[in-house]
Amino acid sequence: MKMIEIDLKLFVTLAKYLPEENEPFRVAPGTTVEMVMKQLNIPENLVKLIFINGRREKPGYVLQQNDRLGLFPPVGGG
Protein backbone atom coordinates (compact mmCIF):
# COMPACT_ATOMS: atom_id res chain seq x y z
CA MET A 1 0.00 0.00 0.00
CA LYS A 2 1.29 3.43 -0.89
CA MET A 3 1.61 5.61 2.19
CA ILE A 4 1.17 9.36 2.33
CA GLU A 5 3.66 11.65 4.08
CA ILE A 6 2.70 14.39 6.53
CA ASP A 7 4.63 16.84 8.67
CA LEU A 8 3.75 15.99 12.28
CA LYS A 9 4.37 18.48 15.10
CA LEU A 10 3.41 17.88 18.73
CA PHE A 11 3.73 20.87 21.02
CA VAL A 12 4.55 21.41 24.71
CA THR A 13 3.48 18.42 26.84
CA LEU A 14 2.51 16.37 23.75
CA ALA A 15 6.09 16.36 22.41
CA LYS A 16 6.90 13.23 24.44
CA TYR A 17 4.53 11.22 22.20
CA LEU A 18 6.48 12.08 19.03
CA PRO A 19 8.16 8.98 17.56
CA GLU A 20 11.88 9.21 16.81
CA GLU A 21 11.31 8.37 13.14
CA ASN A 22 8.82 11.10 12.29
CA GLU A 23 10.21 13.05 9.35
CA PRO A 24 8.31 12.51 7.25
CA PHE A 25 5.58 10.79 9.24
CA ARG A 26 3.90 8.15 7.06
CA VAL A 27 0.25 7.14 7.29
CA ALA A 28 -2.12 5.11 5.14
CA PRO A 29 -4.48 6.96 2.79
CA GLY A 30 -7.76 7.66 4.58
CA THR A 31 -6.12 8.14 7.99
CA THR A 32 -7.79 10.71 10.24
CA VAL A 33 -6.20 12.91 12.89
CA GLU A 34 -7.98 10.82 15.52
CA MET A 35 -6.38 7.66 14.13
CA VAL A 36 -2.91 9.24 14.37
CA MET A 37 -3.61 10.21 18.00
CA LYS A 38 -4.60 6.61 18.79
CA GLN A 39 -1.57 5.23 16.95
CA LEU A 40 0.71 7.44 19.10
CA ASN A 41 -1.25 6.65 22.32
CA ILE A 42 -2.14 10.30 22.89
CA PRO A 43 -5.18 10.55 25.19
CA GLU A 44 -7.93 12.58 23.48
CA ASN A 45 -8.38 14.80 26.54
CA LEU A 46 -4.76 16.00 26.20
CA VAL A 47 -5.36 17.52 22.74
CA LYS A 48 -7.11 20.87 22.80
CA LEU A 49 -6.29 22.27 19.35
CA ILE A 50 -5.74 20.56 16.00
CA PHE A 51 -4.25 22.55 13.15
CA ILE A 52 -3.87 21.32 9.57
CA ASN A 53 -1.82 23.62 7.33
CA GLY A 54 -2.43 26.49 9.76
CA ARG A 55 -6.23 26.02 9.91
CA ARG A 56 -8.16 24.65 12.85
CA GLU A 57 -9.68 21.23 12.16
CA LYS A 58 -11.58 18.44 13.90
CA PRO A 59 -10.28 14.96 14.87
CA GLY A 60 -12.21 13.40 11.98
CA TYR A 61 -10.19 15.32 9.35
CA VAL A 62 -8.79 12.92 6.73
CA LEU A 63 -5.10 13.62 6.20
CA GLN A 64 -3.76 14.37 2.72
CA GLN A 65 -0.27 14.12 1.21
CA ASN A 66 2.06 16.84 2.61
CA ASP A 67 -0.41 18.10 5.24
CA ARG A 68 1.16 19.85 8.23
CA LEU A 69 -0.50 18.46 11.37
CA GLY A 70 0.01 20.29 14.64
CA LEU A 71 -1.46 19.11 17.95
CA PHE A 72 -1.59 21.40 20.97
CA PRO A 73 -2.50 20.66 24.60
CA PRO A 74 -4.73 22.95 26.67
CA VAL A 75 -2.64 26.02 27.40
CA GLY A 76 -2.76 27.61 30.82
CA GLY A 77 -2.43 31.31 31.18
CA GLY A 78 -2.90 34.04 33.63
Can you tell me about this structure?
This protein has one domain. The protein is built from 1 helix and 5 strands; from the N terminus they run E-E-H-E-E-E. The longest helix is centred in the middle third of the chain and has 7 residues. It is mainly beta and 78 residues long. Strand 3 and strand 4 form a beta hairpin. The radius of gyration is 12 Å and the shape is globular. A 5-stranded mixed β-sheet has the order 2-1-5-3-4, with no helix packed on it.
Give the secondary structure arrangement, pairings included.
Elements: E1 4-10, E2 25-27, H1 33-39, E3 49-52, E4 55-56, E5 68-72
Parallel strand pairs: 1-5
Antiparallel strand pairs: 1-2, 3-4, 3-5
State the total count of DSSP E strands.
Answer: 5
Shape: globular
Distance between the termini: 48 Å
The major β-sheet equals: 5 strands, mixed
**Count of helical regions:** 1
- Count of the separate structural domains: 1
Structural class by sheet pairing and helices = mainly beta
Mean pLDDT: 94
Uncertain spans, ≥5 residues at pLDDT below 50? none
Helix content: under 10%
Following the backbone from N to C, one meets helices and strands in this order, namely EEHEEE
Spatial arrangement of strands, main beta sheet: 2-1-5-3-4
What integer value in Å does the Rg equal? Answer: 12 Å
